[in-house]
């Protein structure tokens, strides 16, 4: 399945490394009730929503069971009766972040433009989630337990590619190609915003500061192509990159590449 694309995970808790969550326990939590309150009145949904709100501001590394408990104004131990630890909580957060991705399973399929319009819509919706929740980039997803929302997402995103003559493996690969482009570009955009925040400089201010020196050191015969192209990009975007442009350019190129493949498969059906 395409939804998982990174390596294994470990979490740092109170200065030490914590073991990865138990996948079977995470799976049971993901598919269990999230709205049934415990004796304290807490629900899994309330815990996950609080954790997402904190991670949206401070990132996943700064998140802990203690900070979630403080936000909910409960004791930390109250959380452990619902969620065993940060690893399982992260699985729940990851799944919940994609909970409202589509209005219904056929929403992408019903977009104008056929399979291409559907994939453009899918790319945009994923982009919106990734830019709203940049901590998602910190979640290693190769073996993230597949919850209901991620499973529903996969079903929904495959439907526009079904019946075009592609094999099942080609359908998965085509979707993964689009999604990994979106994820990579969104990750670069998140890093760009983080750098702006940490430095206190906008990209335009940063470019104005380094442009004269960069032009000097890259002039001459040593870096003729890099100097010309880098200067053109910097002057055009007033930055090292423009994530929105990168998303559109890459997506158009990917879909252009898929077009002859799908056309050839459709022709022999």
UniProtKB/TrEMBL annotation:
User: Domain of life, per the record?
Assistant: Bacteria
InterPro entries documented for this protein: Homeodomain-like_sf (IPR009057), HTH-type_TetR-like_transc_reg (IPR050109), HTH_TetR (IPR001647), Repressor_TetR_C (IPR004111), Tet_transcr_reg_TetR-rel_C_sf (IPR036271)
PROSITE patterns tied to this protein: HTH_TETR_2 (PS50977)
Question: What keywords would UniProt list here?
Answer: DNA-binding, Transcription, Transcription regulation
Please report the stretch or stretches of sequence annotated as the HTH tetR-type domain.
41-101
Tell me the DNA-binding residue spans: 64-83
Any Pfam family: TetR_C_1
Keyword Transcription regulation tagged: yes
Q: Where are the transmembrane segments?
A: none
* SUPFAM superfamilies for the chain: Homeodomain-like (SSF46689), Tetracyclin repressor-like, C-terminal domain (SSF48498)
Which PANTHER family has this protein been placed in?
Answer: HTH-TYPE TRANSCRIPTIONAL REGULATOR RUTR, TRANSCRIPTIONAL REGULATORY PROTEIN
Protein name, please?
Answer: TetR/AcrR family transcriptional regulator
Q: What is the lineage of its organism?
A: Bacteria, Bacillati, Actinomycetota, Actinomycetes, Propionibacteriales
